[in-house]
């Protein structure tokens, strides 16, 4: 009998197993495939390897602006794939070592959850006092006639031997789709984005969406807002995508159509008493407990923001609660990040969301265009935008577009976790020249005393 059984060996399940063991629990971690899951082998890590190479090629192409006359770069896809695989393998090996170091019993096999405290692993029954479900999500390819002949999935992009000449990205264009648009475009693919809604990243601030759209458009990505994919007509080079727009139908000839939609791996859970939501996500309370006593769920399985760090963050309270504590999970502290060019990062509420919740808000904003480091590196596209409560100065949200955004958003996360006011953040010191100075300048603008902005 284990104290805690964790099903799923991705970043969330792995972190939960270690945390439960740290608290003195006898822990089993069950994974049917490789440790690290989608994040390490098909998602977060592989995409960053590909995106970094794309970014390096962009820098080389722009080197003349910095006094360097270089030949155009020629990517070696086999070498990129080998590096991607090597990084993933190294991370997985490190995870295995840490599980062993923490006395977590690792079981390789397919687990079937059969009820509170029980699972079958390749026919063997495993019991535990508490269970943490961390089975992640899987690709969900739409049922559209002709799509199976031309589809390229996000998994396939990570293992591509050749870059498609052209790709259509359709539907609700969120973080995964935006990153893949940047990645494919960076390797010379002609990318067309047909967003069903009026803009990409519909859950982020409109300003964020507009800045990223413009950045990608400047790099050659085409956008068709409010266009819905109606049908596909096959031809010898791929297909013709028929898109219904607000005024007329548009026909776009492409070689491939990208599908990166995902669904929670919740199959079979409802039959054993786990309540699911409309998207088949597992429903949890503020302690991450499901409808079954002693059964917790984390990560992609719970829907919402399908991000690896969200799963790892959820793992800590889930493990602590499985071991008898009462730790709440605060979803507002989960940052959303994109390694696009320019980078995008956000945490907390947008201006509209804050107003909808009854806050009287103040906004502070500072552009990258007058930041010294951004000017030096010719990375002046972007801004930092802070949403604050006017009554107490509480920081409700931070939204960054620009170089270094994925690192600097940590300032917003920490400020919100510590319930820091905009004025307190504004009086902090940052080294010069750095992108981090833009955060302080935006916080000062909340109070109307930004030093490096002209008076309005």
Can you offer a commentary on this structure?
This is Dihydrolipoyl dehydrogenase. Its cofactor is FAD. It is found in: Cytoplasm. FAD binds at residues 48, 300, 306-309. Residues 334-442 form the Pyridine nucleotide-disulphide oxidoreductase dimerisation domain. The protein has 456 residues and is an alpha/beta fold. The chain has 3 domains: 2-138 and 263-331, 3-Layer(bba) Sandwich (FAD/NAD(P)-binding domain); 147-260, FAD/NAD(P)-binding domain (3-Layer(bba) Sandwich); 342-447, FAD/NAD-linked reductase, C-terminal dimerisation domain (Enolase-like, domain 1, 2-Layer Sandwich). Helix content is 33%, strand content 25%. The protein contains 14 helices and 22 strands. The strands form 5 sheets. Strands 1, 2, 3, 4, 5, 6 and 17 form a 7-stranded mixed beta sheet that branches. It has a 5-stranded parallel beta sheet with strand order 8-15-9-10-11. A hairpin with a 4-residue loop joins β13 and β14 (249-254). α1 (11-22) runs parallel beside α9, α3 packs antiparallel against α4 and α3 (44-61) packs across α7. It is globular. The model has no long low-confidence stretch (mean pLDDT 97).
Question: What is the secondary structure topology, with strand pairs?
Answer:
Layout (H helix, E strand, L loop, with lengths): L1 E6 L3 H12 L4 E5 L5 H5 L2 H18 L15 H25 L3 E4 L2 E5 L2 E4 L2 E10 L3 E3 L7 H4 E3 H5 L7 E6 L3 H12 L3 E6 L10 H13 L3 E4 L2 E8 L2 E7 L4 E6 L1 E4 L2 E3 L30 E3 L10 H15 L13 E3 L5 E5 L2 H6 L4 E7 L4 H6 L5 E7 L5 E7 L3 H13 L4 H5 L10 H10 L10
Parallel strand pairs: 1-2, 1-6, 2-3, 6-17, 8-15, 9-10, 9-15, 10-11
Antiparallel strand pairs: 4-5, 5-6, 7-16, 12-13, 13-14, 18-19, 19-22, 20-21, 21-22
Cofactor: FAD
GO molecular function: dihydrolipoyl dehydrogenase (NADH) activity; flavin adenine dinucleotide binding
Family: Belongs to the class-I pyridine nucleotide-disulfide oxidoreductase family.
């Amino acid at each position: 009998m284990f104290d805690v059984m964790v099903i799923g060996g991705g970043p969330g399940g792995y972190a939960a197993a270690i945390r439960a063991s740290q608290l003195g629990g006898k822990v089993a971690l069950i994974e049917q495939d490789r440790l690290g899951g989608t994040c390490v082998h098909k998602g977060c890590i592989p995409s960053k390897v590909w995106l970094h190479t794309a970014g390096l090629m962009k820098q080389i192409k722009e080197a003349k602006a910095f006094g360097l006359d270089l030949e155009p770069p020629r990517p070696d896809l086999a070498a990129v794939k080998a590096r991607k695989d090597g990084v993933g393998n190294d991370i997985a090996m490190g995870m295995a070592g840490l599980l062993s170091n923490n006395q977590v019993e690792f079981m390789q096999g397919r687990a079937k959850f059969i009820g509170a405290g029980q699972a079958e692993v390749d026919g063997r029954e495993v019991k535990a006092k508490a269970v943490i479900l961390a089975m992640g999500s899987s690709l969900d390819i739409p049922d559209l006639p002709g799509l199976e002949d031309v589809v390229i999935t996000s998994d396939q992009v990570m293992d591509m031997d050749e870059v498609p000449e052209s790709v259509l990205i359709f539907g609700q264009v969120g973080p995964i789709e935006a990153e893949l648009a940047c990645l494919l475009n960076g390797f010379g693919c002609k990318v067309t984005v047909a967003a069903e809604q009026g803009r990409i990243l519909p859950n982020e601030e409109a300003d964020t969406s507009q800045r990223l759209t413009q950045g990608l458009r400047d790099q050659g990505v085409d956008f068709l807002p409010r266009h819905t994919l109606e049908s596909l007509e096959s031809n010898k080079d791929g297909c013709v995508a028929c898109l219904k727009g607000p005024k007329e139908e548009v026909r776009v000839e492409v070689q491939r159509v990208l599908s990166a939609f995902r669904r929670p791996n919740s199959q079979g859970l409802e039959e054993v008493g786990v309540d699911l939501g409309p998207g088949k996500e597992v429903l949890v309370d503020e302690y991450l407990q499901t409808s079954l006593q002693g059964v917790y769920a984390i990560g992609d399985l719970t829907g919402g923001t399908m991000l690896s760090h969200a799963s790892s963050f959820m793992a800590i309270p889930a493990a602590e609660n499985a071991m008898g504590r009462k730790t709440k999970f605060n979803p507002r502290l989960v940052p959303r990040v994109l390694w696009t060019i320019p980078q995008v990062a956000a945490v907390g509420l947008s201006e509209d969301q804050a107003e909808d919740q009854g806050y009287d808000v103040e906004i502070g904003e500072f552009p990258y265009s007058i930041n010294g480091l951004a000017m030096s590196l010719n990375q002046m596209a972007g801004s930092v935008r802070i949403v604050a409560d006017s009554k107490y100065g509480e920081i409700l949200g931070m939204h960054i577009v620009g170089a270094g955004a994925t690192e600097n958003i940590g300032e917003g996360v920490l400020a919100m976790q510590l319930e820091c006011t905009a004025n307190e953040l504004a009086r902090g010191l940052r080294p010069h020249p750095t992108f981090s100075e833009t955060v302080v300048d935006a916080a000062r603008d909340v109070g109307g005393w930004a030093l490096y902005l002209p008076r309005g």
